[in-house]
Write a structure and sequence with these properties.
The protein is mainly α. The chain has two domains: 81 residues, no CATH class; 208 residues, Orthogonal Bundle (MetI-like fold), CATH 1.10.3720.10. It is 63% helix and 2% strand. It has 14 helices and three strands. The chain has a three-stranded antiparallel sheet, with no helix packed on it. Strand 2 and strand 3 form a beta hairpin.
């Protein structure tokens, strides 16, 4: 019976490759070597994805003359850094930004909490019709929000809530079908012994939810809050329809605020304002990315 051949290696840390009796090399378990082709493809894709943002930065640094020039200017010299100052002087940028932060925060906090409450009910409580109601919830995820926007506007108009922030408060209290689904999947994977121990200690259902389930669900809470916050922050159609121009969000102000005396858009100021507009979302994602990814990973446990 032929013996197993061992290929010597100068590096003791890199375990020597072994060959089977048939002579086929067998790599040891551990780190996989990066393939140059995959790395090159990912680099090209990253450059392509960053190209629109690069063009946005270039446009934001152009003066009016450079912007209207027939020849495209790749590197504006001198760079019109004052465009970022004009963003705040031409329009009340800070006011609209505070409106967006307030609206996104209120909606995010309410939607995060009440979606967790409903998801806990679907995951841990028993009752007649629960499966049917969960099926209705799943079917609601298939309905685009734009389909119900006009009927919702007519409803809020009848009760005098158009032009106020109350619609977002009511939407937050109602929860989101997708976020409820994420919570339900996460809570369903937790051991039942947690509930039993809390019940023996005298906790009510709501006390168990507040003291046991919420503290251990930090990844999914961060995930849901980031999704809700960015959804409201980046929404243009709903605030444009529901709010007045004096209390609207930054997304609406960017689309219609920066124009010249003839009504034509000032693209360099719009580009500069757009860069400032996406900075908060980048910061939020950088701080929350670990919990954000973990939330999606753990939501599909069960």
């Amino acid at each position: 019976m032929p013996e197993t051949l061992t290929i010597p290696s100068a590096d003791p840390a890199a375990t020597a490759e072994t060959t089977t009796t048939s002579g086929v090399p067998r790599r040891p378990h551990g780190k996989r070597r990066a393939r140059p082709g995959v790395f090159l493809a990912l680099t090209i894709i990253s450059i392509v994805l960053l190209l629109p943002f690069l063009l946005l930065v270039i446009t934001s640094l152009k003066s009016g003359d450079q912007l209207s020039s027939a020849d495209f200017v790749w590197f504006p010299v001198p760079a019109a850094v004052e465009n970022f100052v004009s963003v705040f002087t031409e329009e009340p940028f800070a006011v609209y930004a505070l409106n967006s932060v307030f609206l996104a925060t209120i909606s995010g906090v309410l939607s995060t909490f009440f979606s967790a409450l409903v998801g806990y009910g679907f995951a841990r409580l028993r009752g007649p019709g629960k499966k049917f109601m969960f099926g209705v919830l799943i079917s609601m995820m298939l309905v685009p929000g734009i389909v119900t926007l006009i009927p919702t506007y007519l409803l809020f108009s009848q009760i005098g809530l158009v032009g106020t922030y109350w619609p977002w408060v009511l939407w937050g209290i109602s929860g989101s079908p997708f976020m409820i689904f994420l919570y339900r999947q996460f809570f369903a994977g937790l051991p039942r012994e947690l509930e039993e121990a809390a019940t023996l200690d005298g906790c009510s259902r709501f006390g168990t939810f507040m003291r046991i389930f919420l503290p251990v669900s930090k990844p999914i809470i961060v995930t849901v809050f980031v999704l809700s916050f960015t959804g409201v922050w980046g929404d243009f159609i709903t605030p444009n329809l529901m709010l007045n121009y004096d209390n609207t969000t930054l997304a609406v102000a960017l689309a219609s605020g920066y124009v010249n005396d003839q009504g034509f858009p000032l693209n360099n100021l719009i580009a500069a304002a757009s860069i400032l507009y996406v900075v908060p979302m980048i910061v939020v994602f950088l701080f929350a990315q670990r919990s954000y990814v973990a939330g999606f990973a753990t939501a599909g446990i069960k």
